[in-house]
């Protein structure tokens, strides 16, 4: 999973992450890839589709 530059830091993804792998840094979401389980729940709630799965 990765977060592109369209992230506005709304925090919806933080609330949806079951393993708390997302934090806000300078008003942008950041995914801790060591914790992330690639469930994509964060991508489902992102209003700007800023969260994508890596190929």
Automatic annotation (TrEMBL):
Gene3D superfamilies: 3.30.70.20. GO terms for molecular function: 4 iron, 4 sulfur cluster binding; metal ion binding. The keyword Iron-sulfur applies. Pfam families: Fer4_21 (PF14697). Transmembrane segments: none annotated. Keywords: 4Fe-4S, Iron, Iron-sulfur, Metal-binding. The keyword Metal-binding applies. Residues 1-27, 28-55 form the 4Fe-4S ferredoxin-type domain. InterPro entries: 4Fe4S_Fe-S-bd, 4Fe4S_Fe_S_CS, PSI_iron-sulfur_center. Ferredoxins are iron-sulfur proteins that transfer electrons in a wide variety of metabolic reactions. This is Ferredoxin.
């Amino acid at each position: 999973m990765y977060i592109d530059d369209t992230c506005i830091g709304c925090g919806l993804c933080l609330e949806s992450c079951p393993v708390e792998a997302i934090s806000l840094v300078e008003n942008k979401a950041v995914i801790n890839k060591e914790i992330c389980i690639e469930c994509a729940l964060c991508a489902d709630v992102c209003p700007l589709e800023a969260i994508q799965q890596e190929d």
